[in-house]
Amino acid sequence: MTLHFEDLAVDDEWTSGEYEVTEAEIREFAKQYDPQWFHTDPDRAADESPYGGLIASGWHTAAMSMRLLVDCLLGDAATIAARGVDELRWRRPVQPGDRLSVRAAVEDREVDDENRGTVRLRIETTNENDEVVFSMIGIVLFARRQE
Amino acid sequence: MTLHFEDLAVDDEWTSGEYEVTEAEIREFAKQYDPQWFHTDPDRAADESPYGGLIASGWHTAAMSMRLLVDCLLGDAATIAARGVDELRWRRPVQPGDRLSVRAAVEDREVDDENRGTVRLRIETTNENDEVVFSMIGIVLFARRQE
Fold it and tell me: How does pLDDT run across B99-135, given as a tens digit for each residue?
């Protein structure tokens, strides 16, 4: 059943599967979109980074989180558009070998008109130690179910 | 000269080069990170999307904007970390053939301690018609120059 605005109640929650972070993917993403040495150069990162090695681009973490969200929530939903995101925060480094998972919860919902409504989703991405590495509030426009 | 906190004054501005958006890259990014049909399936998008064809994942637009920012501003900067982003908004669809460019301006800056300071950067991504497609406020921690 495709998820519509009516199907989303405040405090509804979803938990995703896992996404395993690899060094190869960290470097590939960063080479294209965020070519800073702490994302692309493992030797320099081993020597100079306070984290002792490569960390993922924050935008890569956002993108991996989106993939987990699509697989557990948005993949069969009547979304019209994503308006944006508030309070996006990178809370801890994401490193090769991390296994990420996403929790999403409805924080607020509001009818816009007879056809659609806006939902604020609180999203947290955790690693395999259940430490929050990334969080944000997504603002998503859903279609209302037509009777 | 590597950009430090002291080099960033309120209202300083940067303008990036251009990034040309291709259908192949829209589909490749979305296949990995945002597999929704309006990003991945050109035939269905031509038939069913209000935009008449594929649009880029919002996270792809963010990633392309980051690449432009690295090339014009962050590539030679003493950044310690990006704390996060406020008020991220996807304002218009990004489509194949669009040529994106980024403007960044210092909105606010604050000393944290003797070693570092936080800078709020207002970032706007425009297309070749100078329409804003994406905007956000980036919160970035820079090293202070040591005398």
Answer: 999 999 999 999 999 999 999 999 999 999 999 999 9
DSSP A3: B
CB-based contact, B81 to chain A, within 8 Å: yes
List, in order, residues 6 or more apart from B66 with CB less than 8 Å away: A33, A34, A57, A59
Q: Do B66 and A59 touch (CB under 8 A)?
A: yes
What is the rounded CA–CA span in Å between residue B107 and residue A84?
20
For chain B, say whether A81 makes contact (Cβ under 8 Å): yes
Residue A143 is encoded by which pair of tokens? 């279609």
Q: Which two tokens stand for residue A49?
A: 């980074």
Name the residue type at position B133.
Answer: V
Binary contact (A89, B83; C-beta < 8 A): yes
Q: How far is CA A74 from CA A58, A65, A69, A107, B105, in A?
A: 21, 12, 6, 16, 34
**Shortest CA distance to A108 belongs to which of A4, A5, A1, A2?**
A5
- Residues of B in Cβ contact (< 8 Å) with A124: none
Domains of chain B, CATH where assigned:
5-143 (3.10.129.10)
pLDDT value of position A4: 96
